[in-house]
Amino acid sequence: LKLKYYEEMDKRKKLHNIVQETKGNIRVFCRCRPLSKDEVSLGQKCVVDFDGSSDGDIVIANGGTTKKSFKFDRVFTPNDDQDIVYADASPLVTSVLDGYNVCIFAYGQTGTGKTFTMEGTESNRGVNYRTLEELFNIAEERKESVTYDLSVSVLEVYNEQIRDLLATSPSKKLEIKPNSEGQNHVPGLVEAKIENINEVWKVLQTGSNARAVGSNNVNEHSSRSHCMLCIMVRAKNLLTGECTSSKLWLVDLAGSERLAKTDVQGERLKEAQNINRSLSALGDVISSLATKSSHIPYRNSKLTHLLQDSLGGDSKALMFVQISPSDNDVSETLSSLNFASRVRRIELGPAKKQV
Ligand code: ADP
């Protein structure tokens, strides 16, 4: 049994090293959605050239006026399905079982497929469900050598307020506090224990449905809030007696688009400012990590404060930059790809932890 366990750990360690070899600790995967029927009927054209996609290259060529190349760790074309996307994220995701804190976030303009990638649909499930399913299955396989407690919280950050999406009654104001191990947590947040894989989709749907409550327009509301799933893993190694706890954040960020000037007033202005502030706070945290600054401004937004333990140090991060293929969206597409390229240049330092 011991031998089998160590063999497996060895295999996983090698896999981590492969994942680790890609430059820096923040990997960036770019995913482009297909042109929609409406876009096609409006005569919009695809401006994305995928010729180099198998090497992580993507070119935005807008009729010769703009031609810009970007390189990422992986480029997914509109033909790449949820299986292919998850397969590449999987080694990183499962490293949470080996004691790493992990963070995966989907960034991009509204309508580019952030929710499709993270949440997916019942028949075409995304990263969130697949992650829980795989963690659960590995936990089952390993149960004779390690016991894992898996639990999940689903929350939303809207206008700098945290809302518990699994709470059955409206919760009082939720704040971020350090726990006894010095990790951030949110006292009072519901933690749903995952004991049975059949419950997982239901729990995720409960969270997703709760986003709509109290908003007039579900799509608009979702595009202006960050939806955050936190998977807590408490492991006890039965062979060594060692206990570890780690967490994995799966984040569907608010839309990164800039507002049309005519839209900027009242409630929309407040929302836009909050989104801008938190997405720039994310950018600032990432740049401070890159320059190895002694002060990392995690506290400048709820989003970065929540992600603090999973962004930086020996944690592992993956960003999906989601883009539209349409010529109508070129300027937002370039802005997202520029941001993602900066993120990809970040090196966070070596990862060490091992159960
Ligand atoms: P966002 O969360 O970024 O606002 P959505 O996930 O809601 O975007 O996606 C917008 C629309 O595009 C949805 O109808 C979604 O089903 C569709 N879509 C996004 N990505 C893909 C994809 N890779 N393949 C097929 N349809 C997609």
TrEMBL record:
Keywords: ATP-binding, Coiled coil, Microtubule, Motor protein, Nucleotide-binding. ATP binds at G108, Q109, T110, G111, T112, G113, K114, T115. It comes from the Eukaryota. GO terms for molecular function: ATP binding; microtubule binding; microtubule motor activity. Residues 25-346 form the Kinesin motor domain. The keyword Nucleotide-binding applies. GO terms for biological process: microtubule-based movement. One of its GO terms (cellular component) is microtubule. Belongs to the TRAFAC class myosin-kinesin ATPase superfamily. Kinesin family. KIN-14 subfamily. This is Kinesin motor domain-containing protein. The lineage of its organism: Eukaryota, Viridiplantae, Streptophyta, Embryophyta, Tracheophyta. The chain holds residues 400 to 754 of 1134 of the full protein.
